[in-house]
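Obj.: predict assembly geometry.
Materials: sequence records (below).
Method: joint structure prediction, all chains together.
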Amino acid sequence: MDTLNALVALANFVLVPSIAYGSQLALGALGVTLIYGILRFSNFAHGDTMAFGAMATIIVTWWLQSLGISFGPLPTALLALPAGALATALLVLATDRLVYRFYRRKRAQPVILVIVSMGVMFVMNGLVRFIIGVDDQRFADGARFIISARDFKEMTGLREGLAIKSTALLTVVVAIIVVAVLFWFLNRTRTGKSMRAFSDNEDLALLSGIDPERVVRITWIIVACLATVAGVLYGLDKSFKPFTYFQLLLPIFASAIVGGLGNPIGAIAGGFVIAFSEITITYAFKKTALYLFPVWEVEGLIQLLSTEYKFAVSFAILVVVLLFRPTGLFRGKAL
Amino acid sequence: MKKMLLATAAGVLAAHAASAMDVGEVKIGIILGLTGPIESLTPQMASGAELALAETSDSGLLLNGATVTAIRGDSTCIDAAAAVSAAEQQITGDGVHAIVGGDCSGVTGAILQNVALPNGVVMISPSATSPGLSHVNNEDNGLFFRTAPSDARQGVVMTEVLMEQGIDEVAVTYTNNDYGKGLADSFQMAFEAAGGKVTINAAHEDGKADYSAEVGALASAGGERLVVAGYVDQGGSGIIRAALDTGAFDTFHLPDGMISEALTANFGSEIDGSTGQHPGTDSEGASMFHELVGGAFDASSPFTAESYDAAALIVLAMQAAGSADSADFKHKVMDVANAPGEQIFPGELAKALQILADGGEIDYVGASAVELIGPGESAGNYRQIVVAGGEVTTVKYR
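Observations (raw C-alpha cells):
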C-alpha cells in the first residue's frame, strides 16, 4: 500500500486542475449571475465579453513587453489588467447605451433580451476576431511553475510528481480577492445596497429614490471588470483563442444555474461543482488503485465515464438540479 | 408515369452521350474548402491543380486539341450540405467532366455519395485520408481515387517508427472526427498486431475550455509515449500543454495534423525527443514541381503536390481513354498512374499526352511519387521527423 503516491497522483490530476478550472468558471459565473440578478436577463454575450477583455489586456501586455517592462515572477498581464478592464467597461457601457437601454425602456420580456444579447454576442465575437485574429495568442511570461512535476519528484523521492502552475495559484488567489471585494461592496457600501435593492424590487427601489440608470451603469462596470479578470486568468492558465471563450459560455451558464441564478455565492459553488464533477467522474482511477491495492490485478481503467462524456456530466447535473431544485443549490431566482 | 420517367432518363443519357462526343472544352471542377478550417492550405492546393490543367490546355494535345477549364467550388471542409450543393451546381449546372476534390474526409464522402455516384462522375481527392473512403468492395463504382494515402497506411508507418525505437506501450488520444477516429483506430490495430499495447484510446473535442480531465485519464492509463492524433491549432496543442504541465508525458508521437510551424512555436524544446511522420517525399518529382511553380505560390504547402497530381491524373486518363466521359476514363486512372510505361514528372504532361495519343503507355510519377494501390489510393510516402533543439528535423523518408 502506497497511500502517499496515490494521494499525490490524485492531487496532481484531479485536485489542482479542478480548483484552477473551478475558480475560472466561478469568476465567469459571477458576471452572468450579477447581470441576471440586477438586469434580469441571461447575458449570452458574457463569453465574448471575457474574450474582449482578455484581448484588450493582451494588446497592452505586448506594448508593455516591448517597452521592456515586466512584473518580476508574476505575469506582465496583471499590470495591463486595469487598462483591459477599462476598455471592456467602455465597450459594455456603449453596448448598453446603444442596444439594451432601448429594450429596458420598453420593459421588454427577458426572453427578448436574451435574443438581443445573442446578437451582441455575435458582434463582439466578430470584433475580437477582427482586431486580434482567430489564432492562438501567447502572452504569458514570468515564472511558469511554482513547483514542476520533475522538481517535486526529486525533492520528495516519490514516484508521482505534483505540478502547481503559478497561473493556477494566481487564479485562485485573484478569485478569492475579487470575490471578497465584491461581497464587501454589495453588502457594506451604499451603492452596493442600492444595487441589491434594485435587484429585489425595481419599482420599490425607484420610489426610494434610487437612480436605476446609475445602478445599471455600475453593474455593467463591475461585470466588465469580472469578465476581464476571468478572461485574462483563463488565457494565462491555458491560452487565448477567441473560439474557446465562446465555448466557455456553456460550462459558465451551467455553473451559474446549478448554483442558483442571481445568487453570487451560488455562482462560486456552482463553478466548483461543475469543474470537480467534469474531472472526477471522467478520471481513470487505475493508477490510484494500483498504489492503494498493489496485489489487485487491475485490468480496466476504473473510469466511470469516458472523457467524451464530460459535457454530458455537466448537463446531467443541470437537469437534475432543475428537476428537483429549480432555484439552484443556493436559492437564486426561479427560472 | 414509369414510361415517361424512363424516356426522360434515356433522353438525358442520349444528350449526355452526344455532348461527350463533342469535346471542344473539358471542364474540371476543383472542390476544396476555400473557406473553413483549412482555408490557409486550399489556395495553394487549388493553384496546384489549376497549374496542371493550364499545362494540359496550353499543350493543345488533349483529345485532339480540347481546351481545359477549371471551375472552383467551396467545400467548406466541414459543412456537408454546402459541399454537396457546390458539387451539385458544378455537375448539373456547369457540366464538369470530373472533380478534383474534396479535401476533408467528411465532405468528400458526402459529395461522393450524394452527387458523384448518382451522376457517375470521377472524383480524385488530393487530401482526404480517412480509411472509411477505401472502397474495397467497389461501393464507389470505380469513380473515386485519391492521391493522398489512407490513414490505414499511416497507422502502419507509425507503428514501424515507434517499434524501431523500442516503444511498445503508448496512450492514444484523437480529435473526435472522421480523421482522428480513423487514424487512431487504424494505428491501434496495426500497433497491437505488431505486439504493442495501447493503454487507452480516448477522444478529445477541439476548441474546448479545459483538457485536464482528458490528460488525467491518459496519465492514469500510462504509457511510454502519448500519441496525439489531432490538430496542432486546435485541441491537440491543448492536450500537449496540459500533459507537459502536469508532468504526465514528456515525449509525444505526432501524425500529420500535428506537424507544422505552430508546433515548434508553441512548445519549442519542451517536446524534444518527440517523434512523428507526415506525408512527404524526397523523390526528384518534388524538386521538379518546385521549379515548375517558381515563385507563383508556395509549392511546399501540404497537399499542393497531391493536388497537381490529382488534376494531371484526370486529364491523362481522359487522353488514354480517348474520351472525357467518366464512364469511359475511370478504368484508365490506375493504368496511367502505375507501371509499366515511361515515367512522367511534373512539367512533362505534354510529353505524356503525346505518348498516350500515339498509343504508348506511361507511368505517372508526378510531384508526390504517385503509386495507386488497392481501391485507387496512393501507397504513400512519409517523412519521419524528430523534434530536436526545438526544431522539427527529418530522420528519413519511408
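Conclusions so far: Confidence is low (pLDDT under 50) at residues 13-21 of chain B.
To do: check interface contacts against the pulldown list.
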